[in-house]
Amino acid sequence: MSILASMQKNQLIPEEYKQMSRTELEDRVKEIKNKLGPKLFIPGHHYQKDEVIQFADATGDSLRLAQLSAENTEAEYIVFCGVHFMAETADILTTQNQTVFLPDMRAGCSMADMADLQQTERAWAKLGEMFGDTILPLTYVNSTAAIKAFVGANGGATVTSSNAHTMVKWAFEQKERILFLPDQHLGRNTSFDLGIAPEEMAVWNPINDTIIYEGDISKIKVILWKGHCSVHENFTVQNVHDTRVQFPDMKIIVHPECRREVVELADEAGSTSYIINTIEKAEPGSAWAIGTEMNLVNRIIQQHPDKHIISLNPQMCPCLTMNRIDLPHLVWSLETLGDPENRNIIRVSNEIAEDAKLALERMLANS
Q1: DSSP result, 2-60
Q2: Which domains are assigned to the chain?
Q3: pTM for the full model?
C-alpha cells in the first residue's frame, strides 16, 4: 500500500490521546501489557523512537520481527511498531488466529513505494522481450506484499541486507540475469562485491519504462530497479571527506543501502545487525561514524558511552514515515484492539500471501 493510500485509509487518532502526559501514556501501555500478558506481542524495529522501543517485547530488523511474531503462537494481537511492509510480512507469516495491527497507517516506506505491481509487470514484460527467459527477480524485504508475491510467482526470492550476497549467488545459479527490486544501491553494492563489473549492470527506470545502459545489452547481468532509501541516500562522499578531516582516526561504517561511492570510501559496510554487532565488539575508546538512521545511531551512542560515536551526516534527520508511530498512537492502538471498526488492522489477501510466502521461503531455504 502506498503512503497516500495509507493516509486515505487512516483513521485519525482522537485528540484526547495527544493531550495525555507521557506518564499517563506510559502507565496505560503498562496496564494493557499486564492485562493481556502473552496474548499481546509488540515487535519494535530498530529505527523506532525510544518512547516506543521501551515497550517492545523484541527489537530487530523487519524479517526477524515477523518471524518472532509467528513463533509467538500465544499472541493473538501483534502490534507492530515499524512500517506497513513490515506488518504485511508479519501478517503473511502468522496464523489466522493472530491479528496484526499498525498503530499509525501513515507509517510507510518511501523505498517500498518506489516499486508498485503495475510498474513491475510492465517492466517484466519489456525485459522479457529484450532478454527472453533469462531473468530471475529478487526483491529486498523492504517491499510491498504485492511485489513479494510477484517475485514468488516468477520463481524468485526475497533478500535481506544480511543475506543479499548469498541470495544473489543463488539467483545466478538459476538464471543468467537478475532483476533486483526496489533498492538499486543494495543491488549494486552486493553485485560489485560478488565481482560483477559496473558495465554489467543496468538501471530500470519505472517512470518511463526504459533501461538505462550504454553498450551491448547482451552483457547485462544485473538490472537494478531505480529505487532507493531516502535516508541512506543522503549520506555523501562529502560527509566521508569531512569526517576524515575532522576525525582522522575515526572508522566509518555504513549500511549497504548507501550509494556505491560512499560504501567504497567507508571502512566497513553491513546490515543494521552488522553495524550494531560491530560497535558492540569494538574496543573501548574507539571512534566511529555511522551511516544509518538517526534513531538507531542515537541509541547506539547512548548504549556505548565508552566509545566516540557520531552520525556520518550530522544534519541527518530521522526517517519521516518510520517515525510516525509514537506513544499516543501506540496507546490508541492498544486500547482499540477489540474495536470492530478498527482500521489499523493489516490484512494481506490469501492469494498475495501465498505467492509472497514462496519468495520468503526460498530465501529462508537458501540462506
Answers
A1: -HHHHHHHPPPPPHHHHHS-HHHHHHHHHHHHHHHGGGEE-EEETTS-HHHHTT-SEEE
A2: 3-109+321-336 (3.40.50.10800), 112-229+356-366 (3.40.50.10800), 232-311 (3.40.50.10800)
A3: 0.92
